[in-house]
Each structure stands twice: as structure tokens, then as C-alpha cells.
Write a structure and sequence with these properties.
Number of strands: 7
CATH topology of one domain: Alpha-D-Glucose-1,6-Bisphosphate, Chain A, domain 4
CATH architecture of one domain: 2-Layer Sandwich
Number of helices: 3
Strand content: 35-45%
CATH class of one domain: Alpha Beta
Radius of gyration: 17 Å
Largest sheet: 7 strands, antiparallel
CATH superfamily of one domain: START domain
Mean pLDDT: 89
Shape: globular
Low-confidence stretches: 157-170
Length: about 170
Amino acid sequence: MRSTIGIDVDAPPELVFRLARDVERWPRLLPHYVAVRPIERGGDGSLVAEMVARRPLVPVLGLSLPVAWRARTWSEEATCRLRFVHRGGATNGMDVTWRISPRGGGGSRVEIDHDFRPRVGAWAAFIDRGFTRPIASRTLATFKALAEALATDDPAANQSARPRKTKTPT
């Protein structure tokens, strides 16, 4: 099963990429991410990590279900892509590609492609609708808000994802 979700962001693709590529920071940036635990670092810059996010069940009551998975991840700076290949567990073999591309007016389009082909096809649909889409949608919405806030607050955000230093008047 292949599925794609996306969002338009009023911030340059390079800024969105810089925010999203450091998955170890995700628990500090994304309120629904509980943990990203590094397991192995590859010489090629890849990282195998265990990730834990909360999937809302009854948002009004704050009830959520913790969802854990393990993935090998890496980023491709030249194309503003993030890659994840799930290893083991319920989503074993899921291949995920984030594509961050320019959009008119200085903004960007962020799309996440999920390719999941378990032995039982109905399992893929259940995982996609029940877990992948809800978690990935929150992730996209949060990165959109962060990137747009940085782009609005700091016109130099095109050059750096970090807030700029200002001098104090003397």
C-alpha cells in the first residue's frame, strides 16, 4: 500500500529541511513525540533509532496510545529528502520518504510517502488509517507552525534555522 500526505508551508524548503532532519530533536520539537532513542550510528550518516509517539484516542480527554517503532533514517541534503526504513515490529519494511520542495512565493510543499507491503494487505490499510496518518499529520502540522514562525520572526531564516542574535544598544 502506498499513501501520501502533504502540507504547504510558508517557509523556504531549506528551513523546513533543517528543522526536520535532526530526528533526535523531535521529542523537543514535537509534543506528540515521547522519545527518539539512538541504537546505532552508521558511517554513512544514517541512524537506527527507536521512536515513540502518542496517537490521540480521545483528544478532548487527553487520552492517547503510545506507538513505538524502530527505523533506519538518513537525510539527503541535496534533494531536501528524509528517509526512514522501518525495521521489525508491526511496520517492518515500511519505506518512508519525506520530499520537501519549493513552492511559489518562497514557500514549500512537504509530502510524506509511505510504502508498506506486509503479507496481509488489510494490515497495511489498518496501520495507515489508524496510526501512520494521524501521527504523520500532527508531525507535518507542527513542523509547518515551527517553520512559519521562524520564517516570520527572522527574515534571515532562509540562511539559518537558529534564531539570530541581536545586539543590545549601547
